[in-house]
Design goal:
elongated, three-stranded antiparallel β-sheet, alpha+beta
Length: 158
């Protein structure tokens, strides 16, 4: 459980064919989990069409913008990702899901309802604001070093 999270940032070119994006070009961004590295890949439309869907956790369509002031989080897409990872068994993916839940609570997209205890695990019961949609997220045991790693990963997402 002492894995180190790393997030790759945008590079301004296609991750497959390495063609440089032009201002306003439609591209597809995706998140992949490779070992304990969450990779962000930006692909041109052509390369995205030939991508194996099993390789990515989540993807979204966007436009390339030079100097747009940094990465803007699409919190609704992150909510969809959280829902899509509900049945994950992989410990690294569970850690990532826990990180997503904390990010969404911090940005006031989710609110803590209660903490549930099942067998030897605790789960956060979170409600999407202004709806009745509930999410249950396993609480991950994090030591000081792990908390610092996840905090750095959180800063990398923002």
């Amino acid at each position: 459980m002492a894995s180190k999270w790393q997030f790759q940032r945008r590079r301004g070119l296609c991750g497959e064919c390495e063609r440089v994006f032009v201002e306003g070009e439609i591209l597809f961004s995706l998140l992949r989990l490779s070992s304990d590295v969450v990779e962000r890949g930006d692909l041109c439309s052509n390369c995205f069409e030939h991508l194996d869907a099993e390789q990515s956790l989540f993807w979204w369509r966007t436009r390339h913008a030079d100097g747009a002031g940094g990465l803007k989080l699409d919190l609704d897409s992150l909510l969809s990702l959280l829902a899509g990872m509900e049945n994950e068994k992989n410990p690294a993916k569970k850690d990532f899901r826990f990180l997503l839940a904390l990010l969404l609570v911090r940005h006031r997209k989710l609110r803590l309802v209660t903490v549930l205890k099942r067998a030897s695990c605790e789960f956060l019961s979170l409600r999407k604001l202004r709806t009745k949609q509930l999410f249950e997220v396993e609480v991950r045991e994090l030591n000081q070093a792990r908390r610092e790693q996840l905090s750095q990963a959180l800063a990398g997402l923002m």
